[in-house]
C-alpha cells in the first residue's frame, strides 16, 4: 500500500511538478517547456549551448580518436588474422573519422553546426559497431576470443551514457538515442536467425533505461544553463537585458541581418534630467522610475525586439526586421503615452536616437550603436523629449 501511494503521488500533476522542481527548482514556470524542446530557447541561450556542445564534442572525439586504435593490440593478440586485420582497419578508419571531427569542427555559436558535430560524434561509433558485429557474426568464436567479442556489445551502452555529458532537451535526447536504438534493430533485421530474442529484449530494455537516465542528466544540465543565463543576462533592477548580454544579442542580430539582407533598427534611449529624480526624491524613487520606464518600453515591443539597459539611465532597443520609419512610429507612440512619473507628478521623458543598418550603411554593430548614440545627443541638445533619426 505504501508503494502504491507513492506511485499515485508521482502520477498526478502535482507529483510531476515535484519531480521537475527537484530537478530544476530555480526555473520559472514558463521555462519548463524549454526542457522539452529547444524551440523556445532564447538566441543567447542557444548560442552558449551550441558553443558548449561543440567544445565537448571535440573533446570526446579526440578522446575516442586516441582510445579506439589502442585496443587494436588486443584484437591482434586474441583474434585470428582473418578477423584482426579488418578489425584493426575499422579501428583506424574510425579514429581518422574522429580526428576529422576534431579538426574540421571549429568553435561556433550556431546551433545547426553543433547538431551536425553531435550527430557525427554518435554516427561514427554506431557505424563502427554495426560493421564489427557483422564481421564477428560470420565466425564461430570460443574461449577468450568470444569473451572479447561479447565486450563489443557494450558500445551502445557507452554511447547512451555519453548523452548525459551534453545539455540537451528531452526531444534532442530522444532523437540521438533513436540512432543508437536503430543500430540494435538493424542487428535484428539483418541477422534474425542467430539472434537470441530474450537477450535482445533485455539489451533493448537496458538501453531504454539508460536513455531515460541520460535524458534526466541532460535536462538537469540544460535547466542549470537556463537559470545561469537568465541570472547573468537580466538586469536585477529593471528585468531587461544587461549591457553585456545586449552586446552579444546585437552581434547575433547584426549577423542575421547581414545574411538575410533585412533591416535592423537600433534605438538609443537616454532619460531626460534623470539625475534630478535621484537628487530630489532619493535613489528609491529613481529605481522605481527606471523600472516603470523599462515596463513602458516592454509594452510596445514585439516578441523578437530586445530591450537592454546600457548604463545608469540609458537603454538600447534592438528591433530586427524593422526599418527606421517603423521604429520611429513605434517609439513615437510610446513617447506620446509617457514613460513614467517623476516624484512631482510630471511625465518622465527621454531623448531617443535611431539608426538602421541598411539606411545608414553601417559596416558593423559598433558603428550602428555609435550612430544611434550620436543622434540621441542631438535630441538632448535640441531640448530633449524627441526622436532623431538622421544627422
Task: Outline the structure in words.
This protein is α+β, with helices and mostly antiparallel strands. It folds into 2 domains: 2-232, no CATH class; 243-388, Reverse transcriptase/Diguanylate cyclase domain (Alpha-Beta Plaits), CATH 3.30.70.270. The protein is 67% helix and 8% strand. β2 (306-309) and β3 (314-320) form a beta hairpin. The longest helix has 37 residues, at 197-233. It is elongated, with a radius of gyration of 29 Å. Mean pLDDT is 84; it is low at 1-13 and 18-23.
Topology overview:
Layout lengths: L1 H9 L2 H11 L9 H4 L6 H28 L1 H7 L2 H24 L6 H26 L6 H9 L3 H8 L7 H21 L6 H37 L9 H18 L3 E8 L2 H8 L1 H18 L5 E4 L4 E7 L3 H14 L2 E2 L5 E2 L1 E7 H4 L4 H17 L4 E3 L3
Parallel strand pairs: 6-7
Antiparallel strand pairs: 1-3, 1-6, 2-3, 4-5
Helix pairs in contact: 4-6, 4-7, 5-6, 6-7, 7-10, 9-11, 10-11, 13-14
Quaternary structure state of the chains depicted:
single chain
State the shape. Answer: elongated
Radius of gyration: 29 Å
User: Which structural class matches the secondary elements?
Assistant: alpha+beta
Percent helix: 55-70%
Unreliably modeled segments? 1-13, 18-23
Q: What sequence of helices (H) and strands (E) makes up the elements?
A: HHHHHHHHHHHHEHHEEHEEEHHE
Q: How much of the sequence is in beta strands? A: 5-15%
Strand order of the largest sheet: 2-3-1-6-7
The number of distinct β-strands equals 7
Quote the distance from N terminus to C terminus.
78 Å
Mean pLDDT metric:
84
Number of spatially distinct domains: 2
Amino acid at each position: 500500500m505504501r508503494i502504491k501511494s507513492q506511485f499515485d503521488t508521482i502520477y498526478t500533476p502535482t507529483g510531476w511538478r515535484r519531480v521537475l522542481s527537484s530537478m530544476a527548482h530555480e526555473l520559472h514556470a514558463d521555462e519548463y517547456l524549454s526542457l522539452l524542446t529547444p524551440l523556445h530557447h532564447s538566441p543567447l541561450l542557444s548560442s552558449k549551448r551550441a558553443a558548449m556542445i561543440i567544445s565537448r564534442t571535440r573533446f570526446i572525439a579526440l578522446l575516442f580518436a586516441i582510445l579506439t586504435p589502442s585496443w587494436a593490440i588486443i584484437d591482434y593478440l586474441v583474434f585470428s588474422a582473418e578477423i584482426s586485420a579488418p578489425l584493426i582497419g575499422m579501428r583506424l578508419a574510425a579514429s581518422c573519422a574522429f580526428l576529422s571531427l576534431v579538426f574540421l569542427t571549429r568553435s561556433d555559436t550556431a546551433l545547426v553546426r553543433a547538431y551536425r558535430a553531435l550527430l557525427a560524434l554518435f554516427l561514427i561509433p554506431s557505424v563502427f559497431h554495426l560493421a564489427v558485429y557483422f564481421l564477428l557474426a560470420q565466425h564461430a568464436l570460443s574461449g577468450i576470443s568470444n569473451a572479447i567479442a561479447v565486450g563489443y556489445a557494450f558500445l551502445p551502452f557507452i554511447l547512451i551514457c555519453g548523452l548525459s555529458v551534453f545539455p540537451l532537451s528531452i526531444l534532442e535526447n530522444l532523437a540521438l538515442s533513436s540512432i543508437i536504438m536503430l543500430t540494435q534493430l538493424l542487428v535484428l533485421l539483418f541477422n534474425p536467425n542467430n539472434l537470441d530474442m530474450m537477450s535482445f529484449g533485455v539489451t533493448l530494455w537496458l538501453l531504454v533505461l539508460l536513455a531515460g537516465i541520460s535524458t534526466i542528466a541532460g535536462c538537469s544540465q540544460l535547466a542549470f544553463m537556463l537559470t545561469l543565463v537568465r541570472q547573468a543576462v537580466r538586469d536585477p533592477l529593471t528585468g531587461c537585458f544587461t549591457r553585456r548580454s545586449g552586446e552579444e544579442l546585437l552581434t547575433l542580430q547584426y549577423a542575421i541581418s547581414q545574411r538575410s539582407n533585412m533591416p535592423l533598427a537600433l534605438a538609443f534611449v537616454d532619460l531626460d534630467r534623470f539625475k534630478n529624480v535621484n537628487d530630489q526624491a532619493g535613489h528609491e524613487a529613481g529605481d522605481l522610475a527606471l523600472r516603470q520606464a523599462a515596463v513602458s518600453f516592454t509594452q510596445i515591443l514585439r516578441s523578437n525586439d530586445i530591450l537592454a539597459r546600457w548604463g545608469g539611465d540609458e537603454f538600447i532597443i534592438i528591433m530586427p526586421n524593422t526599418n527606421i520609419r517603423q521604429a520611429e512610429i513605434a517609439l513615437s507612440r510610446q513617447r506620446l503615452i509617457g514613460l513614467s512619473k517623476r516624484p512631482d507628478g510630471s511625465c518622465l521623458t527621454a531623448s531617443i536616437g535611431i539608426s538602421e543598418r541598411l539606411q545608414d550603411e553601417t559596416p558593423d554593430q559598433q558603428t550602428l550603436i555609435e550612430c544611434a548614440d550620436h543622434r540621441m545627443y542631438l535630441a538632448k541638445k535640441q531640448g530633449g523629449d524627441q526622436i532623431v533619426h538622421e544627422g
